[in-house]
Structure formats: structure tokens, C-alpha cells
Write a structure and sequence with these properties.
single chain, 680 residues, alpha/beta, Rossmann fold, 5-stranded parallel sheet, 5-stranded mixed sheet, elongated
Amino acid sequence: MAKIQCKMCGGSLELPENISSGECPYCGTLTTFPKISGEHQENLYNRAEHFRRINEYDKAVAAYEKIIEATPDDPEAYWGLVLSRFGIEYVEDPLTHERIPTCHRVQFESILNDADYLAALDHAGSAEKDIYENEAKCIADIQKNILRVSNQEKPFDVFICYKETTDGGSRTKDSALAQDIYYQLTNAGYKVFFSRITLESKLGQQYEPYIFAALNSAKVMLVIGSKKEYFEAVWVRNEWSRFLALMKKDRSKLLIPCYKDMDAYDIPDELSMFQAQDMGKIGFIQDLLHGIAKVVTKNDPSVAPAPASSTAAGDANSKDHPFLQRAKLFLETEEFDSAKEYCEKLLDLNPQNGWAYFYRIMAENKVGDEKLLLNIDGIDQQKTFQLAKRFADNRLAEILDEIINFRIEEEQRRAEEEQNRYRKQLVCLCQRYSDRRQEEEQRRAEEEQRRREEEQRLREEKRRQEEEQRFKKILLYLLLPIIGIVSIAVAVFIAFPYIRGYKSDGKTLIEVTDKNITEFTIPDGVTEIENWAFRGCKSLKSITIPDSVTKIWIGAFRGCSSLKSVTIPDSVTVIENGAFSGCSSLTSVTIPDSVTWIGWGTFEGCSSLTSITIPDSVTVIKARAFRGCSSLTSITIPDSVKEIWWEAFRGCKSLKSVMIPQNCIVDSEAFPDGCEVIRR
């Protein structure tokens, strides 16, 4: 049986044949399985997943692409490629212990539009498709939130890529070298991204939005290294490989490897094509500044515009300009076209009046009150909004920042709500899968029981035939008196269990052999009632269970259609699946406080059952527990019950309403159609 790693927690899973999805026993997450046809393919998958889990995403991408070449119809290979390309890592939520995706390689294109993601859906079955879609929606929300934050960041000229700490946690020499270069470049007027300083104010936040924004805006990347392994460090490689990918789309970008105390030939092959700089060389910083200046043009301070000669032009800088007053009045009366017209008139006089752009935003979005701008999705992405922010005075800047902060908080709230919804859907999928698995296990158990019964019957039949042959031979050689005595003894021996009416080893009541009994008292000392012990006792009307009994096994009283009532002693702790199923004359039953769950189909088909007492000890009512109890008109479910499984009360036609605990998890098909479920 093939072994793979769980994508969420890394646990080792034995892959069952012809199964495409299942629940990880380590983290409890519903996950998908690859199509593995041999040991070679198994090794390829484990290698690809190993690279992804240690954050070497480029190697993981290459490994998954090889798998796709070999098996182009395997959806799991496409999904693994998507996770690697977006740098997805699953981390454990310390509160819920669920595995939550984080994105280390965000991209502008949504994961929902990714070609490999769509290919995974095309090749996936219905179960895998549901899992892929739920995961992708969660990642898309994270991606959208990262892009939202990154869009607010100012552009950088230079990105410094380096290794910050050693494996022991101390600061590297590269970090000190990079900081010296950072100060030199900032003094020269460049906007520089240096994580040690740039991300200093972002403690406790995800760094990816800021790294993503810096990688995309920077024209130059400096890769600093004093050792070969520092150039190859996971997160260092992650940054410069992403920048290389951006350079393929933007030829104006430049990457400069900077090394010291090492051979230039030890620089990674991917970087060897670029002109490297030796940081130990005299004049290094001057050469570096000269190279950067060829690519990056520093922004000189803008020259203040000369005052206009006309009065109208001078007034155009004011918030109180008549055109703005007219525009504001038009906004109050919801004459948005007129308001926009006066904003344009003022902008013709002064294209740098931030308030004119602000009122134009209101007109374009057809709102008469500036507070309503808080409710518009993507307002901060509109071109007019960005112009207003660019030319805003202090007061307007405060208003615009308030809108931006509100929209960020709103997007985060929505993302959290979507994530919670995704978690609930995932829990529901896991629950349904678990129910189906238990139903399958129940079916297999019943088949196994029938097989064992058939084998037992055949053994008993064979033994009986052998005994008959043996006794026949004895009859041929013994005297007639002895033959008569032996015959009587044999008859008594064979018939003894049937004369007594039941089979028992003293501790377990194995089977009631007299199927026509109407009353039965289980002997004292019996602790367990075996599977199917009373099956076929259709005439049984009453049963006495002593306090010594602790367990009632599967289908113990199944089909006892004349049994009207039963008293279960407090000593009983386990009532197994289908124990009283088919007891159609049973009208009432009291479950003792020692029972903590009601098993599968325990009272299924008890059509005369009108009342049932569920104690406060019960926490779970499993699938089909009371299915078909058509006379049941009411039931009290205590606050201790936390879960009600699939079809637990299905077919209870007389049950019109039921009150359940507020936090109880209820399957959508637990109660019959038309039954009102009220949470108290």
C-alpha cells in the first residue's frame, strides 16, 4: 500500500486503493489523495510535497510539473502545483487546532482563475472538487486581503535581499553589510526596502503583503551574501527567484549579486548571468550607486507652481471656492451630474485641488453624504480617489485615511466571516464523510456477522453429522442394552441447550434457542447480552434484565415484535447499534444515566414507541437512532446532547416540533420534513 504525506500536517498516510479523498487521522482534516500507480510515482509525490513543506517552492513546482508530464489526468498533481506556485503553507490555529492556509507567494491573478487550478477541477471527481473549491475560496480571500494591504504601500526603488539570522539565531554578517548599504542608498535619496528596518513597525502582522508590494515596485534588487549557503537559504532564494520571475515580464528591472569573502563562482547558477559586485573591493559603493542610477531616477522635490495672475486661478486652491460650494449643494440635492460638472470646472483652473477630486468621487458614486463612501467596495482603488489622496490637504488626508482604514477593516471582517464559513463547510464535509464511513463499517460488520453465523452453522452441522456417524458405528458393536443407554444419553446431551431454552457461558447470554418463549429472565451473573441473542423471538412480550448486565450488543433484541416494554438497569453502560430495532410493539423505554450515546438504529422501526426518556448523560444521538418511530409525538433532548446525526429521527411522522440545545450540531436530514426544530 502506497504511503504519502498529508498536505496539511505532514503526517504519514497509507493510501487506500481506489479512494480519492479521506480524513487525516493526525489533524482530522478532509483531504484529497493522488493517483499512484507505482513506487516511482510515490517517490515523486513525496519529493514534491517535501519541497513544498520546507518552503522550497521552485523545486516543488518543478517536481509537480514532472508528475503532470507522467500522469496528465491526475487532479492532485495540478493542485499541488497551484499550492507551490502560490507558496501555500498550512499552519495550525492555536485555538481551534484547525489547519489554516497562509500565502508566501501572492500573485495579482486570482487563484480562482489559475489554469492549473481549473485543470484540477476538470479532472477531479465530485468529492475532490468540493474540497478543492472550498480551499481555493479560502486562499482567494487571503490573496485579496494581501493585495488590499499591498496596494496601500508606497513604491520602493531598491530591494535588499539577504539572510538575517544564522541557524543558531544570531545575526549574520550579511545583515550588517546590508544595513550599511541601506544607509548609503537612503542618504543618496533612494527609497529602499530593507526588512530589518522596513518591517520593524509591522511586528505581529503578516509580512507577505509588504514584501509582495516591494518586489513588484522595486526597480533594482541587491542580493547580499558572504557564503554560498546564504545565497541558497530558503527565504533568500524565495525572494530573488520571485524577482527573477518579475524581470521576465519587466525588462527594466535589474538584479545585482553582491558577495564578499567568497568565490564569485559559488554564486547560484541562476544569478551567475548577472554582473556581480565584490563588496570587499575598493570603490564598491560608488560602482553600486552608479549602476543603480542607470535604472532608477530619483524624484527631485517638486517645484511649487507660480501663482496665477487671475483671481479665479488663485481661488482655485481654496476649499471654499464657489465652484466647490455649488458642487456640494448639488450633492446634497442628489444632482450628481451637475456636481461633477462644477468639479471639472474647478479642476480646469487647478488640477491639484484635492477637494474637487473628493467631491467628484461622491458624484461618480452617486452619494450625497461623505459618510456613505465608507460602504463602497473598492473605493480606494478608484482613480479619482487616488488623485484626491495625492493632492489632499491635512484635513482631507485624514478623511481619506479614515475611509481606507475602514475599508481594510471591513475586508478583514468579511475575510474572517468567509473563513469561518469555510471552516463550517469543512466540518460538515468531515462529518458526512465520517457518517458514511460508519454506515459502511456497520454494513461490513453485519455482513461479517452473517458470515460468521453461516460458518458456525456449517461447523455445527458437520459436527452433528460426525457425531451421528460415530454413534452409528458404536451401535454396530455394542449390545442392545448398552446401545439403548448410549442413545438416550446422546439424545439428552444434544438436546440439553434446547431443553434449557438458551445458551450461556455464565458471563455472556449467547443465544435464546427457544424462539417461542413469551417471557424470559436473564440469569444473575450474566454481564453481556451477545449480538442477535434474541433475534427471531417474535412471541417475547416481557424481559427481565438483572443489575449484573453492563453491555447490550448489536441487534440483541432485533425483531422482537411482541415486546411491549423493557426496563434497562443503571448498570448498563453500552447499548450497541440496532439493539432494539424492529421492536414494533415497544411503547416506552427508559435509558439509564450510565449511557453516554445512543447508537446507530438503536430504536429504528419501533413504530409503537410513544415516549422515550433520554438522560443528561447522553452527548451524541447517532444516525437512524429513532428512525421510523411513527408514534413518537414528543421527545425531550437534554442540554448535554452535542451532536444529532444523519436521519436520527427520520420517519417520526407524529413529531411536529422539537427543542434542541443552542450549541448542538444537527445534520440537515436529522428530523422529518415538516418538523419544526427550535433551539433553546
